[in-house]
Amino acid sequence: MNRKFQASYKFGLIGGAFCVISFVIFQLLGIDPTKLSMLFGYILIPVFLFIGIRYYRNEVNDGLLSFSEGMTAGFLIYSLIAAISGIGIWIILMISPSLYEEIKAQKIDLLQGNKELIVEQMGIESYDITYQSLLKMTTFDIATNDFIWKIIPGLFFTIIISIILRRNFK
């Protein structure tokens, strides 16, 4: 496990830093940073997973990679990316309450703008519950959402990349 961590942590740290930087850049550009940070993560995570698992296979494990080794290395990479991104976003939102309020207001406006559609499809109770939960939303909720939406695709991409890069013979 130690060899896998030593080979993987660099890719997780760099990927997480890229996610936090993208959050800041999207905010500075006036774009909803929460949505585009997640979208950017869907592009960034498979790239760092592929490079990291391939690095582990070629440089650390003598060109061999079992499915379980690829899954372990990938888990370390996407978990670090998600943790650093989530913690970074939480810190940014704690430092900048105005950004947090802006994001919260955007989400409430979006919900209110789609009220008719939501009520038609899900019912008024569902809309009211969602509205009340948005009013109670905290900076930690935003960061946790980002974390979760980096873990889920990370697992999916790790499975695929571990299968593609698997090599049990030289």
UniProtKB/TrEMBL annotation:
Keyword Oxidoreductase: no
Superkingdom in the source lineage: Bacteria
Pfam families: DUF4199
InterPro entries xref list: DUF4199 (IPR025250)
Transmembrane segments: 12-30, 36-55, 75-95, 147-165
UniProt keyword list: Membrane, Transmembrane, Transmembrane helix
Protein name according to UniProt: DUF4199 domain-containing protein
Species this chain originates from: Belliella calami
